[in-house]
Amino acid sequence: MSGMHYEGNHIIRPPSEARSILLQVTVGCSHNKCIFCPTYKGVRFKIKPDEIILKDLDYAANNYFNVRRLFIMDGDALILPQKKLVWLLEQINKKLPLLERIGIYANAKAIKRKTLEELKELKDLKLGIIYYGIESGNDETLKFVKKGTTHQELYEQGRKVIEAGIKLSCTVLLGIAPNGKSYEHAVDTGKLLTKIDPDYVGALTVMIVPGTELYDMVQRGEFKPLNQRELLVELKNMLEATNMTHGLFTSNHASNYLPLKVKMPDEKEEALKMLEKALKGDIPLREEWMRGL
Questions:
Q1: Which of these, 250, 246, 257, 263, lies nearest to 287 by C-alpha position?
Q2: Smallest Cα–Cα separation from 264: which of 206, 204, 196, 205?
Q3: Alpha-carbon torsion 255, 257, 259, 263, what sign?
């Protein structure tokens, strides 16, 4: 989308938004403290000027008018004040009337700032899916990675999105627990996903990236990354503890060793058997060079 005004080092979007119009409304992440995340280091969070946003929308209307989905970037654009978000969605709908769904990233803090009625108002303006960075359901792990939230808060805000009628896609991270706490991280995350009962779960594997606090901890010997086998055990423990009534549990992101796409709850047992086979060495895993962010 070469005619759009993109700023910053990275254009980050969920894999499922690969064919969507990517509209950058904020630059960076309002939290930007997580010890594993390299994405917005050195980028000061800001909201882009209205005139730039409108120019990009005009460009999209002229060039991608028949695209059915749009994704609002960057890190957690839901943090925008309600009035601004309503204006933005109204402009998007006016200029791109054929859109069927608008998506956005959010953290617990951003959702907490919205009332249930405000979320419903956004839903009526075609906000159809929120991508929710949970990372873990274990309070010790959340504190360790400086996520700035708790199991209880993640649960409450996730349920609020679902109650508003907006689809919820939760992201969880393998390999981020403090050393020796992999099991607790896996099980508590599974319990949280069970309580939230989202439409989608994406399990990613943490990549230790230079420039992050986690990388420095590895260099100093304060954090020992999980090996391939330990990550598979963690994924198995997490899936075992996850009892969603519907939806998809996936680990098919490029960072993972074993791609899974599990229709819950019907395919859960089959997926666990596949993980058992992988742990026995009966299923080939993704090569290290094929993994990526």
A1: 257
A2: 196
A3: negative
Please, what are the domains in the chain?
15-286 (3.20.20.70)
Query: Which three-class secondary structure string do you get for the chain?
Result: CCCCCCCCCCCCCCHHHCCCEEEECEECCCCCCCCCCCCCCCCCCEECCHHHHHHHHHHHHHHCCCCCEEEEECCCHHHCCHHHHHHHHHHHHHHCCCCCEEEEEECHHHHHCCCHHHHHHHHHCCEEEEEEEEECCCHHHHHHCCCCCCHHHHHHHHHHHHHCCCEEEEEEEECCCCCCCHHHHHHHHHHHHHHHCCCEEEEEECCCCCCCHHHHHHHCCCCCCCCHHHHHHHHHHHHHHCCCCCCEEECCCCCCCCCCEEECCCCHHHHHHHHHHHHHCCCCCCCHHHCCC
Token pair 């899936």 is found at: 239
For 258-287, how does the pLDDT look when each residue is reduced to its tens digit (9 = 90+)? 889 999 999 999 999 999 999 998 887 766
Could you read off the pLDDT of 36-59 as tens digits, one per residue? 776 666 667 788 999 999 999 999
Single-letter amino acid code for the residue at 108: A
C-alpha 155/C-alpha 69 separation (Å) is 27
Ranked by mean pLDDT, the top range of 64-68, 77-81, 160-164 is 160-164
